[in-house]
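Field reference: "sequence" (input) and "structure" (output). Example, L1 transposable element RRM domain-containing protein:
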Amino acid sequence: SRRKRHCDQVNISYKIKTEQGSENEDSLLDKKLKKISLNIRQMHFPISSNMIYHSNNLSRNRVQLTANVSEVKLAIPNLQNLQDQLGARIAEVEQHVSKIEGDGVGESQRLWHLEQRLAAAAKWIDNLENRSRKNNVRIIGFPEGVEEGNPMNFLQKVLPGLLDLEGKILEMERAHWALGPHPAPGQSTRALIVKLLRYPTRDLLLQAAKLKGQVMWREHRISIFPDWSRELQLKRQWFWDIRKILREKKIKYGLFYPAILKITVNGEALAFTNPEDARKFLAR
């Protein structure tokens, strides 16, 4: 009986403790749940605030975008008008450019024809000038002043002896120093220009000077040349190297008026107006 009462007391005590432990566990669980709920509410608040903020921004941006689109729509007709005006202006400019180009082509053709006529006129004038000089010779080497004011009389006396033409009468129309400033002491003297009365006399002087080779007068070397225009002289000088080669090869040649080189090879006569063509022929 005593033992039974003791067991009952023990059971009752255990039951009370068990119930108290269960109550404590429930209380602890409630606290945790409340804490979790509070944390969730705290987390939800900033998320909601951010969503509202961004939503407001989107709304404002949409309104602004709508306004901008409206402005663009209003500007499109103006841009179209400007484009039309620009297109018309470009078309007008293209027409002007085409006209200018057409005029330019016409001017180029006219300029080309004028250049051709000018070249032909210059060639004709040069030919006339050289034909007017056909009786002339140019004498280089005499010191200025030796003629004592009468070049023609001086040359008629001196040239026959220098060129082994004693007894020949050298009829001259006129003689004078080449135009230009009087040379200073030590400078080269000017040439004497002589116009002979007859063309054969001119050829006689040139042939005699060529046969004589070196012509000397009082230690002055005298040279006699045809009195060509400067342009024709340059054209004839272009053949200088070719003529030297022909002499070395002992090929018969002649330089004829105005500037035509004639070569005789194996009985065949060839004519060249361009020194390069003659050079190529000799190189074969």
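The two ends are 159 Å apart (CA to CA).
Residues 137-227 form a domain with the Alpha-Beta Plaits fold (CATH 3.30.70.1820).
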